[in-house]
Specification:
The protein is of the alpha/beta class and 169 residues long. The protein has four helices and seven strands. Helix 3 runs parallel beside helix 4.
């Protein structure tokens, strides 16, 4: 009989979930923040349906400024070279580059993007001065200098190899 009494008097064991709760407290904020970051990595695209057929691509300016050792080439990615600005004895002609950028901005006033392509041995100072000439210009009118925004959204990349002129023989 004493065995039965001992068996009935057993205490129920409580489950200790403290460690599990600590894990959940740390895990939930981590998962919530990672969900936000994965959402930023998704690119939503609206592709045309197959029934819509080919559409005409609008021709607009895709400005590329290429820094070569002896010249700065201003071009359109779609149509090719617009103007080549040869270097002077003092170096690159940033004033001429600024004038070309102002002319292009007057023809394409809504365009904000430009790509600057430089060769591997281009000096950092040269790259910065070209970027300044492409981004903005300064006009002096009646004694006041005003800043004109040209192409402020700049992308920088590596220049493709210069087109070599083959000599026939």
């Amino acid at each position: 009989m004493s065995y039965r009494k001992r068996r009935l008097k057993r205490h129920t064991v409580e489950l200790d979930i403290t460690a599990f709760m600590n894990l959940i407290v740390v895990l939930v904020p981590f998962l919530l923040t990672s969900v936000v970051f994965t959402r930023l990595a998704v690119i939503e695209m609206n592709l045309p349906s197959a029934a819509s057929g080919p559409t005409e691509i609008p021709k607009s300016l895709q400005l590329e400024v290429t820094i070569r050792p002896r010249a700065i080439e201003v071009g359109n990615r779609q149509t090719g070279l617009i103007q080549r600005i040869d270097s002077t004895a003092q170096g690159y002609d940033y004033a001429a580059l600024s004038n070309v950028m102002q002319q292009l901005k007057s023809r394409f006033p809504d365009k904000l993007e430009a790509t600057i392509l430089s060769e591997p041995d281009t000096a950092y100072d040269t790259l910065v001065q070209v970027m300044d000439a492409v981004r903005a210009a300064h006009k002096v009118a009646s004694g006041k200098s005003t800043r004109i925004e040209l192409f402020p959204d700049i992308s920088v990349g590596d220049a493709p190899p210069a087109a070599s002129v083959s000599k026939g023989g």
